[in-house]
Amino acid sequence: MDMDYREVDGTREFVARLAHGEDWRGQIEDFARAEGIKAAFFVGLGAVQNAELWYYDQDDQEYDPMEFDEPLEIASCVGNVSLLEGEPFAHTHAVLSRRDGSTVAGHLDSATVFAGELYVRAFEQSLERVHDEPTDLDLWPL
Amino acid sequence: MDMDYREVDGTREFVARLAHGEDWRGQIEDFARAEGIKAAFFVGLGAVQNAELWYYDQDDQEYDPMEFDEPLEIASCVGNVSLLEGEPFAHTHAVLSRRDGSTVAGHLDSATVFAGELYVRAFEQSLERVHDEPTDLDLWPL
Amino acid sequence: MDMDYREVDGTREFVARLAHGEDWRGQIEDFARAEGIKAAFFVGLGAVQNAELWYYDQDDQEYDPMEFDEPLEIASCVGNVSLLEGEPFAHTHAVLSRRDGSTVAGHLDSATVFAGELYVRAFEQSLERVHDEPTDLDLWPL
């Protein structure tokens, strides 16, 4: 089986400085709502004061949360914006690192920003997540 | 010595949902072949059921494979498409993570997709890999 | 508080092959200077012969360096170019990996390139870093 894909038209692009003390993912969603963005990809870097990561159990088909109550660099952040039940959802994965360089990574649910920088490429199209049977995740029907 | 670079013209861009149960890298190459893409960069995120990563031994100048037969998140995926012996090759690096957030990373040779999302930016130009003496790798003469 | 952001106009885009034996970050800054780039985001992948990473101590507000004198893959590199005291500065985060897949990550200050591939998206605007009180970092007033 081949992958599903759709050609998109890049419309607007943005650089952002995330607000200190606020949630990493929530800010991206607030921004998307304010700008009417219904499809985008983004990359970013920075640092956070703490983070909650999720791991998806592929057998139980449930997210398993992990909390890291410590300052961490955001060594990499890759994600996208699409609609989930009509609202912008920022699907966000990140790799975080400590003073000794050691890392933790996963699906970033929330994190308190220390400092953060983002590039967002928004598309003309709207992408909507719908329930996918084999994975029990909300994915794009492209 | 300065880095070699070439200005490129972005032509088309795509969002994709990788097919469950199929190979991560192979799907990107099949897509590139189907769309006639000879140069692109991509970023992605998702989860896989297993992965084979390669590490390049800079002294022996050979790839050293590692197999991870376990479910892993794709916390980050950065790569590009160019031509290798006339066929699209997806040079793919990834950071993968486990239930406890611990990570493994490297050159992603293959991985069975659980779910995956990709942004691809294709260029008008064609990039071709040719053998590079000092590294014994196939690189771009720009 | 919401995040600060600015819509930017993508002007030019580049693919690059980093020079073997030279500094990863320095080459990006030399390139930006040569091309007159005052704002850009980039992603990349490759391998290095060694690396110096920095971790920002959020309490002491000082960078804490770590040296890794070993060959490492660049599993992920995300960064941007903007002006710091009038000169192009490449803010660069990276995730690096070893033969067994184990990783280190952080703010990449310097690294000797073995091989590297980069995509750079340059913007028409100029971004300048200025001192930020709460973090003691140089950030963008957007």
TrEMBL record, chains A, B, C:
GO molecular function annotations of the record: DNA binding
Pfam families: PCC
Gene3D superfamilies cross-referenced by the UniProt entry: Hypothetical protein, similar to alpha- acetolactate decarboxylase, domain 2
Keyword tags: DNA-binding
InterPro entries, per the entry: DNA_bp_PD1 (IPR025707), PPC_dom (IPR005175)
Domain PPC: 7-142
Protein name: Putative DNA-binding protein with PD1-like DNA-binding motif
